[in-house]
Amino acid sequence: MYIQYNANPYKRRTSDCTIRAISLLTGKSWDEIYIEIFNWGFFLKDMPPMNRLWGSYLRYNGFRKYYLPDTCPDCYTIRQFCLDHPVGKFIVGTGTHVVAVLDGNYYDTWDSGDEVPISLWKKEN
Predict the structure, then answer these.
(1) In terms of residue numbers, what domain contains 108?
(2) 78 contacts 112 by C-beta, under 8 angstroms
(3) What are the CA-CA distances from residue 85 to residues 9, 16, 103 (Å)?
(4) Would the pTM of this model clear 0.90, i.e. be above it?
(5) Which of 32, 79, 87, 103 would staple 113 via disulfide (CB 3.0–4.6 Å)?
(6) Averaged pLDDT for residues 76-102
(7) How many domains does the chain have?
């Protein structure tokens, strides 16, 4: 279920989780996504780390945002989310981290399966 993934060209473990997740789910390189997000920020006059900026980018590219119910905020994990969603492309947010989920597997530089998701972006067909 966990697949180690780091699209960063220098394999750095830096604060680029959003770039890595979008790269995986769009099939574009880390460099392409980094440049597109920064250009998107220039267009919207906003800074790239801002959630509203990359959220706007995702919406433009066919993703839709959803919030997870707060029924068990400490027990529903990314790992459980993957079990519940064996098919599809998702960018899952925890509030401090972003993880790519593709067909029931989560891709990250570290095993973030115990993190608690609060929102997600789903690639619509």
Answers:
(1) 8-123
(2) yes
(3) 29, 24, 7
(4) yes
(5) 79
(6) 96
(7) 1
